[in-house]
Amino acid sequence: MAFESLSERLQNAIKMFRGTKEITEEDLKEPLRQVRMALLEADVNFKVAKNFVAKIKERALGAEIQQNLSPSQQIIKIVDEELTALLGGTQAKLTVADKPPTIIMLVGLQGTGKTTTVGKLAYNLKKKKKSPLLVAADVYRPAAITQLQVLGEQVGVPVFSLGNEISPVEIARQSLDKAAHLACDTIIIDTAGRLHIDEKLMEELQDIKATVNPHEILLTVDAMTGQDAVTVADTFNKDLGLTGLVVTKLDGDARGGAVLSVREVTGCPVKFVGMGEKLDALEPFYPDRMASRILG
Ligand code: GDP
């Protein structure tokens, strides 16, 4: 399970506060060192970990004594609140267009779970009585179109493909007519992934963006890749302007650093997390619940 080690270490660090009667800087030193170590070991970005601990220290020392809470309970509350804030504060919902269709572009490096996420999103939306159209705009990987068609069939939603000889920009453009024709209220575009970020990929994605003007550009990042995921997200965001992130493979034994740092580093909210390979394994991301899960 993701976060297992981080959870355990954070909980141990927090236990060190339990005996504290009055909070002094000296009392905080060791527990906060432990918190910082736990974050770094979970592959949280160095700066993020440093800022996080600094905030807790500042708040703990400046905290007004609340009658109903012991000093240690107060610190636990601060850690919980700061962890929630780090994860994005409140839930960032999927944008829905005032006037349909809502256009969602899925982007991501190969293997991060982009196409699977397109299927999961379609499943999710269909359950909410929406009618999505999936658009096969990854024309470079031959299996990608078939993979999307299989997913479309499983979910029971139409898939728009023009094969792999037409440019992805043109496919995206024509998908608007198709959606109108089929009365689909949501368009989900599966774009090409590459092993690494390259200029050509980014230009193509920028062209698709300029052509269809999407309401959402979601990037899938693989939780198992830790800080690399955060670097990739930062680059995509700078080049493309993301509206949200989907952190995939959180059902595995990811150390959790990606989820913890990605919002802080990119300023982009995590909107969903992938919790498995199946269609129903996409969950909306609730920062407060995730914080509680981590702190146990
Ligand atoms: P793409 O190249 O980014 O489109 O990646 P795919 O959608 O083909 O996914 C790559 C692999 O990751 C597939 O085997 C998926 O089943 C798997 N995968 C995707 N999302 C998740 C997830 O949330 N959890 C797990 N365990 N596997 C996932």
UniProtKB/TrEMBL annotation:
One of its GO terms (molecular function) is GTP binding. Its EC number is 3.6.5.4. It is found in: Cytoplasm. Keywords: Cytoplasm, GTP-binding, Hydrolase, Nucleotide-binding, Ribonucleoprotein, RNA-binding, Signal recognition particle. It comes from the Bacteria. It is an enzyme of class 3 (hydrolase). Residues 269-282 form the SRP54-type proteins GTP-binding domain. It catalyses: GTP + H2O = GDP + phosphate + H(+). The keyword Cytoplasm applies. One of its GO terms (cellular component) is signal recognition particle. GTP binds at residues 108-115, 190-194, 248-251. The keyword Nucleotide-binding applies. Its main location: cytoplasm. GO terms for biological process: SRP-dependent cotranslational protein targeting to membrane. Belongs to the GTP-binding SRP family. SRP54 subfamily. Involved in targeting and insertion of nascent membrane proteins into the cytoplasmic membrane. Binds to the hydrophobic signal sequence of the ribosome-nascent chain (RNC) as it emerges from the ribosomes. The SRP-RNC complex is then targeted to the cytoplasmic membrane where it interacts with the SRP receptor FtsY. Part of the signal recognition particle protein translocation system, which is composed of SRP and FtsY. Composed of three domains: the N-terminal N domain, which is responsible for interactions with the ribosome, the central G domain, which binds GTP, and the C-terminal M domain, which binds the RNA and the signal sequence of the RNC. This is Signal recognition particle protein. It comes from Succiniclasticum ruminis DSM 9236.
